[in-house]
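Run log, item B.
One chain of 477 residues. Sequence copied directly from the ordering sheet:
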Amino acid sequence: MRGTTVRMKAAVTEEIIARQPPEAQAIIRALLAENAELKRRIEELERQVKGKTPQNSSLPPSSQHPHARPQPPRRKSKKKRGGQPGHEKHTRPLIPTNECDDVQPLIPTECRRCGAKLSGSDPEPLRHQVWELPEIKAQVTEYQRHRLVCPCCGETTCAELPAGVPQGQSGPRLMAFVALLMAYYRQSKRRTANFLGTLLGQPCCPALTVKIQNQVTSALQPSYEELAAELPTQEHLNIDETATKEANGKAWLWTFVAQMFTVFAVRATREATALGVFLGEKFRGVVTCDRAKMYWRVERLQWCWAHLKRDFQAMIDTRNPRSKWLGERLRAATCELFEHWAEYRAGRISRFALVRRMGPVRRKVERLLLRGMQSGNKGVQGTCRELYEHREWLWTFLHHEGVEPTNNAGERSLRHAVIWRKLSFGTQSAAGSRFVETMLTVIETCRQQRRNAFAFVTAAVESHLAHQPAPSLLPNV
């Protein structure tokens, strides 16, 4: 039939092979063996990839569409959306009257019932406050530099700009504002320029935003380097990393979370050499991380139990009954661990009680890992062998105050950076990467220390323009 293609799958049987010359028979059998091996490998890879979700692997939650996520079994509530009758009312508290920019007393002149004249004032009037933005207008200062000629020698002398006045047309607050728009509020350079022109009447183009970001990076670099130099002295760090791009090449965004500050770094590698640059040989603290092998160069680790819980879920999702049985019991032990940890964090049990309760959990987990090494499933055997051989890294949090059993602090610090990466597709140059790592460090550290990021960036730019020392982000400085 014209226009119709008929595809037939021919079966290569031994009878067909036997009719061929010996050389052809050898070639056919070699090709068939190679084809069978490729099919086996494809099926194995499909089996591995098909069942991977953020719940049973290290895939980020954003890699899965929200509609594809399984919804927890819950009965549909009969209540209407929003606040329910009888709930406590929440209103914005009024600020003191003397802090208001304008106070307008409203006094009635006649009775609303009979119309009689009224006089006097209410000692406790009803207070109603309205918040409004002032007219947004950029403040422009013109510096007129006079040039005068010397009557003696004829030399022309021009007045210098005052200390702290930039050579360009952007002041410190404007530069800090532009930097935060791009780094904190995730706006592109073109949208940032459009925002300044629309709301501030400030002439701006994308090229100017690049110039400003480079100036802000230079102003913040001393503060960034001071924090990075403190990392080897910390007793505990949460470390994590995520893939990004730099100039269309692959790069990695690292985060080092200390108790009172965070340092970000964009590097071209995920290898342990990046750790060596920041931690050096002097670091003797504890690192909380996932099971990636580049962290093994550190002497004391705490492996993240949230990652382990996903690994155990992956065992449950396999078709092997023994692996499923093992995964269910390891996951149950993990949930028991989290219950005891939640009791301790809430202050309902002491640290001594926490260690005592963890004893049976630890013995249970290690017995199950030993059984997993004999499960017959190659993937499960490898995971259980690695966990058992490094089992001390599972329980470091029991021996060091301040160390948690999960790497939630590291993952939370990366959340803003991951959203930024998805919107911007990485950076286009090394200078852009320096801006990103510097601004993310300032933003997250200010959040930890409850400091105003805009005020800090402004102060850093002012100090840079005045050739003064940069402000410090170190705690208690």
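Observations after the first pass:
- The two ends are 86 Å apart (CA to CA).
- The CA atoms of residues 43 and 468 lie 64 Å apart.
Flagged for discussion on Thursday.
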